[in-house]
Amino acid sequence: MTKVDIRPSGAAAVPDSAGLNLYKADPDMARLAALYLPGGLHAHLSPHLERLGALAGGELDELASIADKNPPELIARTRRGEDAQTIAYHPAYRRLEEVAFSEYGLAALSHRGGVLGWNAPMPPAAKYALTYLFVQAEFGLCCPLSMTDSLTRTLKKFGDPDLVARYLPALTSQDLDVLNQGAMFMTEQGAGSDIAATVVTAAPNADGTWALTGEKWFCSNADAELAMVLARREGGEPGLKGVSLFLLPRTLPDGSANSYRIVRLKEKLGTRSMASGEISLQGATAWLVGDAGAGFKQMADMVNNSRLSNGVRAAGLMRRALTEALYFAHRREAFGKRLIELPLMRRQLLKMALPAEQARSMMFQTAEVLRRSDAGEAGAYPLLRILTPLIKFRACRDARKVTGDAMEVRGGCGYIEEWSDARLVRDAHLGSIWEGTSNIVALDVMRAAQREGSLPILKAHVEGLVQAAGDHAPKDLLPLMDRAIALAEAALADVALTRQAASALYHLTSAAALAWEAAELNLPHRAALARAVLTHRVQPKDPLAGDPAEDAALAAVLGDPGAVG
Predict the structure, then answer these.
(1) How big is the chain by its Cα radius of gyration, in Å?
(2) Of 239-243, 438-442, 492-496, the least confident
(3) 201-226 burial code (b ≥16 CB/10 A, e <16)
(4) Residue 471: which residues within 8 A CB-CB, separation 6 or more?
(5) 37-50 burial string, b = 16+ CB within 10 Å, else e?
(6) Distance of alpha carbon 562 from alpha carbon 20, whole angstroms
(7) Closest by CA position to 311, among listed 387, 385, 386, 396
(8) How far apart are CA 122 and CA 402, in angstroms?
(9) Among 129, 178, 197, 451, which is most buried by a count of CB atoms within 10 Å?
């Protein structure tokens, strides 16, 4: 009897994950949410996380693809010739806004109660767990979400009470007709990372406001109702001390338009759904925020919050890319086997899973330290100051590679814009540029070590995780951490070592976190991931020697997302 080949053919041979619940497809996410969230809040949020997972794998993913292909358009005048600028967005983007700002209150839930039926502000871990799911569908809108949340935080910390009272309700509203979205306008043609080169000027007005004049070169969420702006005070000191922080409204309290124009919108590689533009300030009215001589220091609070959000988004992008690759590998057949059964494919998938899991653990760890820092816990702020640039630096760089490798798993289809892979690759490149390039952020790791004394506090944090992890922690983790601390101390004198030191600190901290999670949740595969971090990302490796055999516990990392999602 002739053997009949019953392998799928035609369209049936191309696996498609459309409609997959991205929360249920990722069993460790529910376990980690239970670990890092307070019990009552976790139970309350579980159905919301599950619903968002379904949206992210279905409706939101479709909307994100449409919005990506239909970017916003700057409308300079009305049809009657009125000089009234607006930005036209596709209805798909508006629906994404509705889910993020209105239904889930992602920009409000850290600042007030009442979001998703919870009667108090939620801790950072809740916000980032939800964002982690949302960004797996739509990256572009997460920038306005983060900036609105971060502007609100900075305004509450440093703003005049009357200014806070005026704008806080609109910044935290879930009514899109009332909501004031936020932005930050920092970059100039000659002042990107070098804030001391800022030339936009601020002149005092008789009524206590300031008039801002000059051009800002890269302004995301360009039509936001409120923006934090850095400008140089007329007659102020040179350098950073002459740069102050201002709150710039798009519409003045009397209802008239403020005196600035959106010159044009940028055509970007990624985040195409969201409007980034150039702004010309023409004596625009703004309010001074906080201490006039500490503008950059105060803006750094907003920047650091945005940097953490960049790390969270990178973690989410890697998870979505990994989920797509796993889903495909479990269903695509070649050479008589499913791809997941092929040794080279398993190896490549594990190489994607490792940085994705590192980033997620660092996301939750940093979120918890942010909560402790905001509560005033001793030692938490210096720890936060070093964890934030660590995740921003390393996770954002890892996301570029993981998304590219995942696209390769799908092959030719992955290169086609009809699938999510190409969009993930384009969006992933943003994280290593916005809110500081890799060099700038790695240097900030060293700045935290030098100014905040963060290294011994980070070391103590890692030691605590390892002690709690017990036998789940690799035996050589702490000696390697000692060497990483020594390398970081050397980098304070030899700046060329900075990136190497930052990577080492990130890898060892994430390995300790993975081991701790393994112990807390009794998950052997997370302990195996911790060991793999040391083997593949920290310890020296002979390129002419073979790799060790795959740890059997890591099979759980390569499970079929479609079996549960």
Answers:
(1) 24
(2) 239-243
(3) bbeeeeeebbbbbbbbbbbbbbbbbb
(4) none
(5) beeebbebbeebbe
(6) 7
(7) 396
(8) 31
(9) 129
Q: For the segment 162-217, what is each residue's pLDDT rounded down to a tens digit?
A: 999 999 999 999 999 999 999 999 999 988 888 888 999 999 999 999 999 999 99
- Rounded CA gap, 61 and 540, in Å? 40
Helix H or strand E encompassing 457: helix 454-469
Are the C-beta atoms of 515 and 474 separated by less than 8 Å?
yes
Q: What is the DSSP letter of 418?
A: T
Question: By the 8 A CB rule, do 90 and 96 touch?
Answer: no
Q: Rounded to an integer, what distance in angstroms lies between the CA atom of residue 367 and that of residue 350?
A: 26
Q: Which residues contact 398 (CB under 8 A, 6 or more apart)?
A: 314, 318, 355, 356, 358, 359
Strands 226-233 and 182-185: parallel
Q: Which of 445, 538, 523 is nearest to 489 (CA)?
A: 445
Residue 547 · residue 344 · CB < 8 Å? no
Would you state the structure tokens that stand for residue 14, as one six-digit string? 């191309």
Query: Phi first, then psi: what are they for 515, rounded to 5°?
Result: -65, -40
Q: Which residue, 188, 193, 251, is CA-closest to 214?
A: 188
Angle between helices 380-410 and 420-428 (to 10 degrees): 140
